[in-house]
Design brief:
Layout: H1 7-12, H2 16-24, E1 43-47, E2 52-56, H3 58-64, E3 73-74, E4 80-82, H4 89-93, E5 101-107, E6 112-119, E7 122-126, H5 130-139, H6 141-144, E8 151-156, E9 163-168, H7 169-182, H8 189-205, E10 208-210
Helix pairs in contact: 2-7, 7-8
């Protein structure tokens, strides 16, 4: 089971589930509920109270999700590329994210939208103005339809062309894990930027293009 933050991870800003997600990504896995062997692509479930993610077979995903009072939420597999999403620089700056790569999700246990950005130390929480987020969400129906806890608004403004997605939370953890593993020195090095480029290329290839008619 991927655990929530421990004392060490609180000191370096990295939930231990991110460390485990990165470390175990290349090993054969089993369902953490029934021990059945899993295919490389399999279900992930989230405990929204503990912020724990577990790997699951299809049967356990059906059994433990979708019912009143269920302990887990199923992390969706759908990825939506918001191809005509527009965010002016001033609007992005109002979110006070120190880098041009971040993800946002509604934490139902905390009762607020969380803003996170990847770093060599792991995922770092950024202070987020509710007013700034509400303004952006009001302009974009896709953000209003995100599933709490398990879907994120993933922003990549690195480079000349910005990319915006509604993506599963486990994809964001995978990105954070890649950056932790491959970052070298002060600037990251060529390898980590190659990994980031490949990550978003793969994400785009697996996504469904969504256009919003509600843009101003």
């Amino acid at each position: 089971m991927m655990q929530g933050p421990d004392k060490d991870s609180e000191r370096d800003g990295t939930p231990s589930l991110l460390k485990q997600f990165a470390r175990r990504a290349s090993t054969a896995e089993r369902c953490e509920l029934c021990s059945a062997e899993l295919a490389p692509i399999h279900q992930h479930l989230l405990d929204p109270k503990k912020r724990e993610i577990v790997c699951s077979c299809d049967g356990c995903a059906v059994l433990f999700c979708g019912q009143a009072g269920a302990h887990y939420l199923r992390v969706p597999r759908r990825i939506r590329a918001l191809s005509d999403f527009q965010m002016p620089d001033l609007q992005w700056e109002s979110l006070m994210i120190p880098i041009n790569l971040a993800f946002f999700y509604c934490d139902s246990a905390a009762g607020k939208v969380m803003a996170m950005y990847p770093s060599p130390a792991g995922a770092i929480e950024s202070l987020l103005s509710l007013e700034s987020w509400s303004e952006i969400a009001a302009e974009h129906p896709a953000l209003q339809k995100m599933e709490p806890d398990v879907e994120t608004f993933l922003v990549n403004r690195v480079g000349t062309t910005a990319q915006y997605y509604v993506a599963p939370i486990d994809e964001c953890y995978r990105l954070v894990g890649l950056i932790r593993m491959h970052w070298r020195g002060l600037s990251g090095g060529a390898e980590v930027w190659k990994e980031i480029h490949n990550f978003f290329g793969d994400l785009k290839a697996r996504s469904v293009d969504v256009r919003e008619s509600a843009h101003a």
